[in-house]
């Protein structure tokens, strides 16, 4: 595999060799994305509570969770169809399809749904076993570490939800 960075232009993505960013860069991007999502949650939560006239944080809890799930799906599908979220731009990472082309919003939405494999298995186990919040956090963190390390077993070093979605994360050269 070539170690030369890939240009950000869609035409160059088809001719230059694609290489996956390092696991550390992808996880740093993942954590940064999580921090940026606080702003999205704040705005969406404020909008939801205003529109539904929610006065208490636990009122309409499941409605708010569903609303945030939809807002996150729209956010990620839209940005991924453009190639990058803000965090991905910061870490020089782009999402493309298996051939190196930009992904569609439908594929971005499919990638979003599959990305919940990072959280659903440990949360389901936590719910089924009735574990406490602290124990659930340990399960989630352990599963995230395992899921990230499993990318080492993918032939192209990709996360498995990307392989299932037909997408790839690639390193892009920063524009000067």
TrEMBL record:
<keyword id="KW-0472">Membrane</keyword>
<feature type="transmembrane region" description="Helical">
    <location>
        <begin position="62"/>
        <end position="80"/>
    </location>
</feature>
<feature type="domain" description="RDD">
    <location>
        <begin position="21"/>
        <end position="166"/>
    </location>
</feature>
<feature type="transmembrane region" description="Helical">
    <location>
        <begin position="29"/>
        <end position="50"/>
    </location>
</feature>
<keyword id="KW-0812">Transmembrane</keyword>
<dbReference type="Pfam" id="PF06271">
    <property type="entry name" value="RDD"/>
</dbReference>
<dbReference type="InterPro" id="IPR010432">
    <property type="entry name" value="RDD"/>
</dbReference>
<keyword id="KW-1133">Transmembrane helix</keyword>
<protein>
    <submittedName>
        <fullName>RDD family protein</fullName>
    </submittedName>
</protein>
<feature type="transmembrane region" description="Helical">
    <location>
        <begin position="136"/>
        <end position="153"/>
    </location>
</feature>
């Amino acid at each position: 595999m070539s170690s030369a960075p890939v240009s950000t232009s869609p035409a160059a993505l088809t001719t230059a060799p694609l290489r996956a960013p390092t696991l550390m860069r992808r996880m740093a991007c993942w954590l940064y994305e999580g921090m940026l999502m606080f702003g999205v949650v704040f705005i969406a939560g404020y909008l939801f509570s205003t529109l539904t006239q929610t006065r208490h944080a636990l009122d309409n809890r499941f409605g708010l969770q569903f609303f945030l799930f939809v807002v996150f799906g729209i956010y990620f599908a839209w940005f991924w169809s453009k190639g990058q979220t803000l965090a991905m731009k910061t870490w020089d990472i782009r999402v493309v399809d298996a051939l190196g082309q930009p992904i569609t919003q439908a594929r971005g939405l499919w990638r979003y749904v599959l990305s919940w494999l990072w959280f659903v298995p440990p949360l389901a186990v936590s719910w089924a076993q009735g574990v406490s919040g602290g124990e659930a956090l340990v399960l989630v963190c352990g599963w995230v570490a395992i899921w990230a390390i499993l990318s080492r077993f993918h032939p192209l070093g990709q996360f498995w939800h990307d392989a299932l979605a037909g997408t790839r994360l690639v390193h892009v050269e920063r524009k000067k």
